[in-house]
Every structure is written in C-alpha cells, then in structure tokens.
Amino acid sequence: MNNAQDILFKSIQQGLSELYSISTTNISFQKTRKEFEGDFTLVTFPYIKDAKKSPEILGQELGNYLQQNNAQVKSFNVVKGFLNISLNDSFWLNYFNAVKNKSNIGYKAPNSSGRKVMVEYSSPNTNKPLHLGHVRNIVLGYSVAQLLAANGHEVIKTNLVNDRGIHICKSMLAWQKFGNGETPQSTGLKGDHLVGKYYVVFDKAYKAEIETLVKEGKTKEEAEKQAPLILEAQKMLQQWEAGNPEVVGLWKTMNNWVYDGFAITYKELGVDFNKTYYESDMYLLGKEVVQDGLNKNVFYKKENGSVAIDLTKEKLDEKIVLRADGTSVYITQDLGTAIARFREFNSLNQLIYTVGNEQDFHFKVLFSILEKLGYDWARECYHLSYGMVELPEGKMKSREGTVVDADDLLKGMFETAKATTEELGKVEGFTQTELENLYHLVSLGALKYFILKVDPKKKMLFDPKESIDFNGHTGPFIQYTHARIKSVLRKAGEYSTSEIETIQVNDIERELIKSVYDFEAVLEEAGQNYSPALIANYVYELTKLYNRFYHDVTILKEENQRLKEFRLQLSKCCAGVIANGMNLLGIAVPERM
RNA sequence: GGUCCCAUAGCUCAGUUGGAUAGAGCACAGGUUUUCUAAACCUGCGGCCCUUGGUUCGAAUCCAAGUGGGACUACCA
Predict the structure, then answer these.
(1) A278 forms bridges with which residues in the sheet?
(2) CB A334: neighbour CB atoms within 10 A?
(3) For A462, left (φ over 0), alpha (ψ -120 to 50), or beta?
(4) Is the CB of A395 under 7 A from strand B?
(5) What is the DSSP-derived secondary structure letter of residue A475?
(6) Residues 192-221 of A near strand B (Cβ < 7 Å)?
(7) DSSP summary character for residue A157
(8) So what's the architecture of A413-584 in CATH?
(9) Which nucleotide shows the minimum CA-to-C1' distance to residue A390?
(10) pLDDT tops 60 at residue A40
C-alpha cells in the first residue's frame, strides 16, 4: 500500500503543474496541528509567487483539484497560506486493517538492511561501582542497539572493560595495605563496592601525604608527583605490565570481584552484550599500530622518545600516541581496539561508541588518526555523544562522594514502586514472585523512561531529593495504560478479528489510527538520529491519546457489535505499539498493575 | 588563551528539513467514578523562546556578535 504522503505528493505535484504550470519536487507537508481540521497540511506560501495568486485562492483551487482528482481526499480547508487536507475514513480503515494483526508494526524485518553495526556501551573502569552516569550510558546504548535492530540492521552489542591502568592499581594497593584480607564474602559487600571502597581509601591516604609534603615546603605539583603512595602505585603498574605473578594474581582476584558485582547490576538493568572486550587484551595491539604509523610517516618520534602525531591542521593539536617510556596511553589502546574490531568482523559497516560528551575531543582525534592511517572505515565510526547527568550542585564526582550509586538508586526505586503499588492496592491474587517482578518492572520503567525521554545530546538534571515520578509523563503511566488495555481485552474474551469496513469512526479513533500510522516514520527517524527520546515521546503521545479514548468511549458495553469489535481491535493494536515502543527503550510492560 | 556544547512556563523537559495562536508533565486552584484499572480524565493559572542585529513572505528553529552556564584543551582514563 502506498503511504499517505506519497499519494498526496503526486496529486499535489500534478495539481501545481496543471493549474499553474509549476514544476517542482519541493513539496513537503506536515501533520495538521490539532486545533485545525485535517490530516496533512501543505504550506502554500512557496508557490504563490510563481502562481501569481493569493495564498487563499491558491489553497482553494489546489484543494478543489485534489478533491476532484484524488479519491482518497475527503475534504479540505484553507486558513491563510495553509491547505489542510483530510483523507477519507476508508483510507485510514484500510491502513488499520492492513497492519492491525501484525506483531511488529513499523519494524523492518530482522537483518533486512544488510548493514552490520557494532554498538559499544557501558565500558566501565574496574576500580569503582557504577553510578547514575553509567546508567545513562547503559540504558542509552542498549536502547540504540534495539532501535537499530528494529530498523533492520544486524547489531553487535559490545562492552569494552577498562580493566588495567593506574586507577586499578590504586585500589589494589590500598587493599593490600589497609584491607586486612577483606573479601566480598567476608564483608557481604558487592565486589565492585568493595573495590570502590579501597579506591576511596587510597585517595584519602594520598591526599594526606600530599598535605604533609606541602607542609614540608613542597609545591602542590611536586607533592602530587612525589607522594610515596602514588610512586608505589606506579611501580605496581610497571610490575603488572612486566607480568609479576603476585601483582597479576591480586589484579585478577579483585577484577573478578568487580565483574561479579557488575554482572548483578547489568542483570538488574536488563541489558546484555554479545561480546566483551578487555583492555588488558587489547593494549598491546595499539603498540603495533604505533609502529605501523611510524612506518607510514603518519607519526613521528620526538626527542625524548615519545611518539606523536601533528593534527594542528585539523585544529586538534599535537597528540601523543605513545609515552617516552614506551607504555601506551588511552588513545593507543583505542586505535588498536578499533582496528581489531574491524578485522574480527570484516563486514562491519559501522562502529558506534556510546561515550559521554566530555570525550568529544578524544573521538575527533581518534577518528582523524584512523583516517590518516588509511582506514576508510574511520568515516563509519560514530561517537554517540551524550550529555552528563548533573546534580543540583553540579557534576557528580566519585572522589567527593557526590555520585548517585546505581545499585542504591535501583534499590530505592524498587522500594518506591512497592510502596506505591501497595498503596493503590490493585494486585489481589498476585503471588510473591509476581509482586517482586512487578515492582522491579515498574521501578525500572520509571528510571529508564526518566533517562531516555530527554534528548541524549543534552545534559540532564537529577535531583536525589525528589524521587522519580510515577505519574504524568513517566514510564509507569505508559505501563499502566498498557495494563488497562490488557484488562479490557481479558474481559472481552473471544472476539472477531476480521476486517473492519462499514463502521463510522469517531474523531479520537481516527486520531489513534493516525498515531499508529506515524510510528513507522518515528522509528526510522529515531534510528537515523540514535535518539530513543523520539520513541519515548511518541509512545507518550499515543498513550495519552488512548487514555482519552478509554475515558470518553465505551468499549465492552458498546451495543453495535462491529463497533465493539473495532474498538477491541484498536485497543489491542495500540497495546502492541505501546509494548513494542517501550521494548525499544528496554522497558517491559505488565499485563496487570 | 584556544576549541566545542548549551540557554523555551516557578521546576523538569518536548518542539523533524524555517510555517498557523510555542506544547507536555510536575507544582498550584478546581472538577470527574452506582459504568471496561482514578498510576486515569477534564478545566484553569502560568512565556521579552537569554540579548541585539541580519537573512526570509515567514525565525524558538538559520547566520553574526554579545551575555550567562558547562565541557575539553595530560606522556590520566
């Protein structure tokens, strides 16, 4: 079936040509705003000069032409330079009949685009637990992967774990010195929290040392470089690189504690990965790349032995890619990892990095270097740059203890969901397991929706003092609407799902069909823009519309049998789109709540 | 200093390639249930879309300058 826009486009093109001899492909229309009557609106201002007509007359003439020459056009009205066009109900009913029994309205068939895309997200350090900033990353990355899959791409979800480096050594050293052999088992602490605890311990002790040195007359910078603890941590890193068995053993033990902890949080969040990379496996690759770059004269060796690239022409300055002591920096590993990924998945079309916008500069440099090294696919690398999550007092800082811990947050949300549900008391007959599942589902819905409804590119504010809402423009509102629909459908029992042809649809029913119709375009746009927010806001609009329908129109008590069947079918259709839309956000919807 | 990002209702956010009287939610004031789940629905209140100039038939949207906020500018990650 041709879509509405195509049908109108052709007619309007013909009309402009026949009436005014205007030949143009510059015809775009938008959805008619709800305060006016109509489905689509053509702005006629662009044509009045060539047509030598006033906007009102041109609108009238073109409207008449459309009505006479296009069987789908029911009526039109003209307001100043706006031609509002209504399509026949039969058009909308035909559309409805065509899609209503599909399980994935608007989705492209799996892997139908022929594109293979890797989405990297999460990518944590293993020296501390996850916080709200990571949660935004994780929830966003997972949702974008869902969006791309729904747009027909083959998606590989990956995690790049930053499991090596000085920061890990800090936790290790502090544990060694002050840990008294503590383990997750002995303390009952989640592994990542235990390791994070010692990261903080290190920082405190380190700061104390700096203070002492400053009192002894050293400058702050000198003190920071000379404090015994930092020297010891650096030595530990060298030992690690040298393969010292004791250090490597401790490193493995503590990292495994962290992985066990992360696994729990990922499971709580309902996300997964197809492949996990570890920087400890990748960092040596970067050194080969550096050699390759030297051979190609893309890089050059500086006097002190470090290797650099000149990106001043790109306004990116000179960038060091290998330290004078031969150890790799962050970007060295990223170069190696990117190349390894394109080698491993040789038909990879795109690589998406879900990383905060504080690293915009880093990725510009990375992609630029890859291009200079001659990798054409560098242009297919995309930095999905998202805004920071800020608290009312500003940015979260791990060391200052102002972070919102992911596990605490999830737990708090769960308790709120539980309290709210109990207060409303609609869950008679639920088993304990079903209740737990519901609390979990609703709390995650609230949290994920709260994060995903805002444009990823923008920073967002989180106020720990105000709990995330469950009413209004929220995840639970949408989940609730889904449960309501399911409740009606359960009570309806068996009903016909045959084609609907002869009924009279009312305004709100037509609006609902139109809203369902829009989903395909929204999904496409959300995929192109890597923006779950478009889906989130769309689903909200549909849900709000459905609630008005639910309120104003009776379904089960409708006496006209065909009308009742239509309303049931429409309800089921909306529930499906709502569930699929939420699924794209990584949010489940309940049958009852 | 340089580069980049942001600024819309009291608060949190929408506003697709420029289009009609700039929209939601929260908060505040009020109303709706003997009827399919009131986590809902309806009404009201609330705006120099940061400022100034420019482009255009038309600017919250594009351009320039300014103001305010933020990020980056490591041989950290």
Answers:
(1) A161
(2) 24
(3) beta
(4) yes
(5) H
(6) none
(7) E
(8) Orthogonal Bundle (1.10)
(9) B70
(10) yes
Separation in Å, CA A553 to CA A157, A212, A531, A571? 44, 75, 34, 12
φ, ψ dihedrals at A87, nearest 5°: -90, 160
Q: What is the pLDDT of residue A1?
A: 44
Q: What is the pLDDT of residue A231?
A: 92
- pLDDT more than 70, % of chain A: 99
Contact of A348 with A119, CB cutoff 8 Å: no
Alpha-carbon Rg for chain A, nearest whole angstrom, is: 29
Tens of pLDDT, residue by residue over A429-485, are: 999 999 999 999 999 999 999 999 999 999 999 998 888 999 999 999 999 999 999
Q: What would the DSSP string read from start to end of A392-460? A: TTEE--GGGT---BHHHHHHHHHHHHHHHHHHHT--TT--HHHHHHHHHHHHHHHHHHHHHTS-TTS-E
Q: Which fold has domain A4-87?
A: Gyrase A; domain 2 (3.30.1360)
What does the DSSP 8-state code read for residue A379?
G
Strand B reaches within 7 A of the A133 CB: no
Q: Which of residues 343-362 of A touch strand B (CB under 7 A)?
A: 357-362
Name the 3-class secondary structure at A519.
Answer: helix
Could you say which residues 51-80 of protein chain A have a Cβ atom less than 7 A away from any atom in strand B? 79-80
Task: Provide mean pLDDT across the span A131-154.
Answer: 97
* Domain residue ranges of chain A, discontinuous segments joined by +: 4-87, 166-273, 413-584
A523 Cβ contacts chain B strand, under 7 Å: no
Give this complex's ipTM: 0.96
Q: What span, in angstroms and rounded, lies between the C-alpha atoms of A432 and A439?
A: 11
A442 touches strand B (CB under 7 A): yes
Which of A497, A458, A504 lies closest to A576 in space, CA to CA?
A: A497
Looking at residue A327, what is its pLDDT? 80
Nucleotide nearest to A49 (CA to C1'): B57
Provide the positions of strand B that have an atom within 7 A of a protein CB.
2-7, 11-17, 19-21, 23-27, 35-42, 57-58, 70-77
- Protein residue closest to B74, using CA and C1': A320
